[in-house]
Design goal:
Length: about 140
C-alpha cells in the first residue's frame, strides 16, 4: 500500500509539473492569418441623417403598431419630398428610454458632431414637427 501511495504522489507531481509548464507557454495560434488592422468603411447615401424609430415603445403602451405607422409615414413623406436616400428611416429595438407616452426617435447625422438628440414624439400629433426637425438637420 505504501508503494502505491508513493506512485500516486509521483504521478501527481508529474501532472502538476506538466500542467504548470503548459500554462506558462503561450496559447496555440488558432488562426494563423494575421488580423486586419483596418476595417473598410463606406459613405452611405443617407449622409444627411439616419432616423431611428424605436419599435418597442408603442408595443409596451398599447400593443399597437404606432411606431410602424410613424416609420412608414416618415418614409412616404421623405420619398414624396425627394429626400429619401439623403435620409434613411430604420426601425430599431429598445433604445433604453421607454417613455410612458410617445415613441423614442433618434436622429443621427454628420452635422450633429456625435450629439444625436433623443426625441419623444406623439406618433400622430407630432409627425409634422418631427419631419420639420429632420429637414432642419439636412446636411
Amino acid at each position: 500500500m505504501k508503494k502505491l501511495i508513493q506512485r500516486i504522489k509521483v504521478l501527481l507531481r508529474r501532472i502538476f509539473k506538466e500542467f504548470s509548464s503548459n500554462s506558462q507557454q503561450p496559447s496555440p495560434v488558432i488562426n494563423s492569418r494575421p488580423l486586419e488592422t483596418s476595417i473598410p468603411t463606406v459613405s452611405p447615401r443617407w449622409e444627411s441623417g439616419l432616423v431611428l424609430v424605436c419599435s418597442q415603445c408603442a408595443n409596451e403602451q398599447s400593443g399597437s403598431t404606432a411606431s410602424e405607422d410613424l416609420e412608414n409615414w416618415l418614409k412616404s413623406r421623405l420619398k414624396f419630398e425627394g429626400l429619401w436616400g439623403d435620409f434613411r428611416v430604420v426601425s430599431t429595438s429598445c433604445l433604453g428610454v421607454c417613455p410612458r407616452i410617445g415613441i423614442t426617435v433618434v436622429l443621427v447625422s454628420n452635422g450633429n458632431h456625435g450629439n444625436s438628440p433623443c426625441l419623444i414624439v406623439n406618433p400622430q400629433s407630432d409627425r409634422e414637427l418631427l419631419y420639420s426637425y429632420i429637414k432642419q438637420n439636412q446636411g
